[in-house]
Design brief:
By secondary structure, this protein is α+β, with helices and mostly antiparallel strands. The chain has five helices and 18 strands. The protein folds into three domains: 82 residues, Pseudouridine synthase (2-Layer Sandwich), CATH 3.30.2350; 136 residues, Pseudouridine synthase (2-Layer Sandwich); 59 residues, PUA domain (Archaeosine Trna-guanine Transglycosylase, Chain: A, domain 4).
Length: 290
């Protein structure tokens, strides 16, 4: 049994918890996920089963979220799950002030991940270092935020902002909340997070754990963002055996490799290859050998 699940992760479970539940439901050992979600976050968690786990690294990296940011509060984890560090009413905060600062968080930016995150520094997870009380200097990382759109703003002592965020891999929404509060001088933390899209999976097509087991998504269906290269049967066999194939192609990069079946007049997905700058097709991962 090989394929993908578009799972709607519930509140309170870790991504690993979800993988463990899917293993039990489908009776499989080989199950993995793409794009970790914090326990307090909900929404899309792509799950790979069987041989499809080998394709996880080739999924699209773009993601989209609906986030609720609460101003006037800062926490140790940059969300409401952590210890409250400061709390002070900021009823003076206006939507116009927020709109002035949002452009700082669009495009390619430098972002410091939360202290409580799975990123490794000097070989140790940040959340382990934070829990041990060690002083941590977290290096900034380059991330890309494609779009920020205000959905709603609720004024009050502790105003809340709903944002739609489209971003690339490695972006921490908790960091956006924290840093927006810092720019405004009010402090802020992430109050709620829903992932609406991830790697081409959409929330409207997702399934809950209670709805499983269900049909799996064909592996190649989640790789359509990669260009396609079709090989004749004899050449395809050589490629599946690990041989490099010289092609007269101008493009380079990662591609889907398929075999042309002359009798059945159909194409069969074989795996992932890379076209080098010299036009040579190199096997990266043979999914379906001949």
């Amino acid at each position: 049994m090989d394929g993908f699940l578009n799972l709607n992760k519930p509140f309170g479970l870790t991504s690993h918890d979800c993988v463990a539940k899917v293993r039990r439901i489908y009776g499989l050992k080989k199950v993995g996920h793409a794009g970790t979600l914090d326990p307090a976050a909900t929404g899309i968690l792509p799950i790979a089963l069987g041989r499809a786990t080998r394709l996880l690294q080739y999924l699209r990296q773009d993601k989209a979220y609906h986030a609720t940011i609460r101003f006037g509060v800062t926490t140790a984890t940059d969300d409401l799950e952590g210890e409250i560090l400061t709390q002070q009413a900021v009823s003076h905060l206006s939507l116009e002030q927020i709109q002035e600062k949002l452009p700082l968080f669009q495009g390619v930016i430098q972002q410091i991940p939360p202290n409580y995150s799975a990123i490794q520094v000097q070989g140790k997870r940040l959340y382990d270092l934070a829990r041990s009380g060690q002083a941590i200097e977290v290096p900034a990382r380059t991330v890309e935020i494609y779009d920020l759109k205000i959905l709603d703003f609720r004024a009050g002592d502790f105003p809340e902002l709903d944002l739609a965020i489209a971003c690339g891999s490695g972006t921490y929404i908790r960091s956006i909340a924290r840093d927006l509060g810092g720019q405004l001088g009010t402090g802020a933390t992430l109050a709620k997070l829903l992932r609406t899209e991830s790697s081409g999976f959409e929330l409207k097509e997702s399934a809950t754990l209670e709805e499983l087991p269900g049909p799996l998504i064909e592996p190649e269906a989640v790789l359509l963002h990669l260009p396609e290269v079709v090989l004749e049967s004899a050449i395809a066999k050589r490629w599946c055996q690990g041989q490099k194939i010289a092609l007269e192609l101008e493009r380079s990069g990662i591609v889907r490799v398929k075999r042309e079946h002359s009798v059945e007049r159909s194409l069969r997905f074989l795996g992932i290859g890379e076209i080098r700058a010299d036009g040579v097709l190199v096997p990266q991962m043979v999914y379906e050998p001949i």
